[in-house]
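pls read this protein.

:::
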Amino acid sequence: MKNASVPLMLLVFFIALFPQRLAAEDADDCAKAREWYERGVALSNSSGEEIACYQRAIELCPQDAARAHERLGMIYKARGELDLAIEELQQACKGGASSEPHTNLGEVYRMQGKYELAIHEFQTALDIREDDRRAQANLEYLYRRMGRDDSPEDEKYSMIAVPMFGREPGFSLSQGITSVDLNLESMMVRREWIAPMERPVDIWRLTCGIRSGLTNDLMVGVIPKLLWKKVYIRDLWGHESQPAVYGLGDTMVLLKYCLWHFRQTAWSISLGLSLPTGDEHKTSWYGTQQYSIPLGSGRYEFMPGVAFSTSLRHVGYLHANAHYFLARRRESGLDPGDELSYNLALCRPISLIGEPYFFSLPVKGLVGEIELNGSWRGQGEGPKAQFGPEYYGTSSKATFAGGNMLSWACGLQLLVYGNMKIEIGVQVPALVPDHPWSKRPVYRIGWTRFFPR
């Protein structure tokens, strides 16, 4: 009896050990599968070798192969092998964690003319990620093409979270979406060059941005600026003057192109061209004294930039951008110096309880954001001094130092009606150097309306 129990104990021990061995083997296979997948990503040339890498990854670890199926589907889509693309993307969609496979599958169905299937995939993508811009643009395109009037009002456009104070280079749109936004800013610049010296200036700036996605990767925008300035002047005798002017400043024409995107991450480059659409200077009388106050640059100037965006799970959306402003000497002799600006913003959707109201308009969505804004400016040079009692002791030419400035900003973006959004924010200096262009707190209110074509 004792001898018979030995084989039985060995059998029980083997049965207990067998699942652990299988689990260890599966883990080894999945580790090898990840190596094959990374090898294919490193190739990224749509070659037969890249396809073989993904197929080997799927063979080794089929239970965790959604990304490999998606990459295969994109290769077959680019090659025009749409049936194979559908098979792979359907497998990728079973992962359920990303909207990207559904968007890609919807585009393949759209290319085949299977519009109802495509609409279903785009709607599924938006259920997973409500700001999937490609899915939004494709869905609107199909509703227009099919002549359907049952397209729901797509309020998800308005919840595209973008930085408030780094918007010019950092705001982009997908194909088929046009936006109009108005933004009003109030600030005081500690010292601006008002010949022949630096003076404190109150500035109100109204910016109107019109942007349109020509393709999913290319966006064009036109951004004119209207300025109101009041200068605080105190002469040698203690007399105070506060001349003010208003008028059209420069207009920015902006191109932005997406170089690379995968899932919810994208890298883009931008190029802005500043057009001298307004007056370089405007004259203002205060009492019997005449003052010349700058409004625009009077020059064509360029602003190249780069932008990055991604989604952080359970945190929100991260946006970063930087642009370099190439300044040119003005006709007045003012050289403001080149400027490098950079922006880092975290935008997070906020859950609402019930349906709150904003000035009698229902708030259907809310996004909170915090930003870190920085600037560096090179040394500038002012024009030759004018002569008169106020200017005694000034030199014929003055320079002012550049330096760095760092600011914090916070704000709220409210979806209040349809495809319309209202934004409220404040920017507070954290590091303020002693040079002419440093600012005190900046207050901003904005309005945006999205128009699908």
Summary: The domain at 2-146 is CATH 1.25.40.10 (Serine Threonine Protein Phosphatase 5, Tetratricopeptide repeat).
